[in-house]
Amino acid sequence: MNMKVNIAGVEWKNPVTVASGTFGSGAEFAEFMDLGRLGAVTTKGVSNVPWQGNPTPRVAEVYGGMMNAIGLQNPGIDLFCERDIPFLRQFDTKIIVNVCGKSEEDYCEVVQRLANEDVDMLEINISCPNVKEGGIAFGQDPRAAEGITRAVKKYAKQPVIMKLSPNVTDIAGMAKAVEAGGADAVSLINTLTGMKIDIHRRTFALANRTGGVSGPAVHPIAVRMVYETAQAVKIPIIGMGGIASAEDAIEMILAGASAVSVGTANFHDPAVTTKIVDGIERYLEENHIEDIRELVGAVRD
After folding, report:
1. Looking at 81, 100, 108, 128, which residue is catalytic?
2. Within a domain: residue 301?
């Protein structure tokens, strides 16, 4: 029985990784589970300089999930390369570095810095505002998305995964734009924009007013968007959004994802990813499926 998947020329031992921002860079989870069981570890977003993130409060519980406005707080690329890459290299897993920025130059600087580092793939988070274009998000304008993809590909030595925002009318159009820009794979979905108000204090639950909604409530939306994307592009898809069980993961694979990423579920069960790996293996055995790749996009009408 084969659990291996190939994403843009990089072979993972199984199709399970973690969603950026929900797992740090692995150190805080290492005492709860074996990072070597994962197909890949996706790090928290890394920028060219340290970011402080948004003011608190910046996390709130909502029906069927959570909402966050962390603001991509991170210590910057220099400390990441010095501390986090050597830590992750201890484990038999692929390393995917999530890259964030506020301008094309920010992204390219980080990608160029990582070109000679011992990491396997880059995931480019294009949900940050492009301040040089009047606050239009790269992830909401197909031309801007294609442009930033072309720009980072000039410097990238590793395969590039473009992480797509669900806060768009046409997710397939965004996927086609980054594919045209040279993306090696796409990952989706990032969080949906939401708001929560404390009726007793009559104020916003998050200091940022709005935040990204994630968790089981967004899963059906994510499955639909992965399916639509799979019909539109030829590059591999890493599906994410509310995955909390092997059943959720298999559903995403049937919709067209070659691999899956687990996010919010890590907060209430640090070992959930290993349970999902085991659950996928059981599903293959019970259904006499020899190769996980047989399930990719295999949903029937």
Report:
1. 128
2. no
For 117, counting Cβ atoms within 10 Å of its Cβ (0-12 exposed, 13-18 middle, 19+ buried), the class is middle
How far is CA 63 from its chain centroid? Answer: 22
* pTM, two decimal places: 0.96
- Whether the CB-CB separation of 16 and 276 falls below 8 Å is answered with yes
Q: Does residue 118 lie within any of the structural domains?
A: yes
The pLDDT tens digits of the residues spanning 59-117 come to 999 999 999 999 889 999 999 999 999 999 999 999 999 999 989 999 999 999 999 99
Q: What is the DSSP string of 28-58?
A: TTTTTS-GGGSSEEEPPPB-SS-B--PPSP-
Within-domain flag for 249: yes
Indicate which CATH number applies to the domain containing 233: 3.20.20.70
What total of structural domains would you count in the chain? Answer: 1
Alpha-carbon distance of 196 to 202, in angstroms, equals 10
Residue 300 located in a structural domain: no
CA distances from 183 to 131, 211, 213, 245 (A): 23, 27, 26, 29
Residue that has been written with the tokens 């349970």 in this structure? 275
Domain that holds residue 237: 5-295
Q: How many CB atoms lie within 10 A of CB 5?
A: 25
128 catalytic per annotation: yes
For the purposes of burial, counting CB atoms within 10 Å of the CB of 219, is it exposed (0-12), middle (13-18) or buried (19 or more)? Answer: buried
> Which SS3 state, helix, strand or coil, does residue 267 take?
helix
Tens-place pLDDT, residues 140-170: 999 999 999 999 999 999 999 999 999 999 9
Could you tell me which of 57, 42, 166, 179 has the C-alpha nearest to residue 100? 42
